[in-house]
Amino acid sequence: MTRTEVISAVKNYLNRPAMPDEDVGLLIATLEGELNRELREHPRSEKRASLAMPDTTGILPLPDDIAQLLRVYDAGGNYPRWPIDLPPGNNRGFLDRGSVLELIPHPAVSQTIYMDYHAYLNPLEGPEDRNWVSNYHSDIYLYGCLKEAAVFLKDDPRLAGWQVEFTRRLESLQLQGWNQNLGVAPKVRTAR
Question: How many domains is the chain partitioned into structurally?
Fold first, then answer.
């Protein structure tokens, strides 16, 4: 579902065709804040970035969509989390300084550094914007926005119903078992 489709569906469900798009946009933004908290560690949110060291300061800017840093390493697998997990005598690590990392020792300029992290959802800001939740679980966007609309419109009788439906669907997504590190061998039929 695109942002435009979410806005249209919310207006239809609420039977409020004249509701301003900006008001529905506020509902979407509010819902995305909640989804970013609830789905922060969902395996679908995990990303990998490769960044080249920009200079000799050892300071590496973090991606804008980073919610939680998981791992930092170079091509040789170095840079365990500082100071945890450093064996005695190892002088490699990094310090998380909010929007940047300081790598110790300072890597060479243009050296590629890799990081795995949990990312925030891409927000639905433009008319055709989508993200993995709106693509594969559009019902969560719909019921989440309806829940927020009931609060926004002070529609208390409907709030409980939208809340229950949103929570049920979100829990179902969280229990899907994405990337649980369980390998299943393909089944092969043998001729008889």
Answer: 2
Phi, psi angle pair for 85, to nearest 5°: 70, 15
Q: What are phi and psi of 47, to 5 degrees?
A: -130, 160
Q: How far apart are CA 79 and CA 58, in angstroms?
A: 12
- Residue 44 is classified by DSSP as G
- Provide the whole-model pTM: 0.79
In a domain, 55, yes or no: yes
Domain that holds residue 107: 44-119
Chain centre to alpha carbon of residue 19? 29
**For residue 80, what is the DSSP state?**
P
Rounded distance, CA 113 to CA 137, Å?
33
Is 168 a domain residue? no
In eight-state DSSP terms, residue 45 is G
Q: Is 68 in a helix, a strand, or coil?
A: strand
CA proximity to 63, closest of 130, 129, 111, 118 = 118
130 and 35 in one domain? yes
Same domain, 22 and 62: no
- In this predicted model, what pLDDT tens digit does every residue of 72-103 receive, in sequence order? 888 777 765 544 455 556 666 777 888 898 88
Residues 89 and 59 in one domain: yes
- Which residue in this structure is represented by tokens 């791992």? 71
**pLDDT tens figures, 21-72:** 999 999 999 999 999 999 998 999 999 999 998 888 889 899 999 998 888 8
- The position carrying tokens 């927020």 is 148
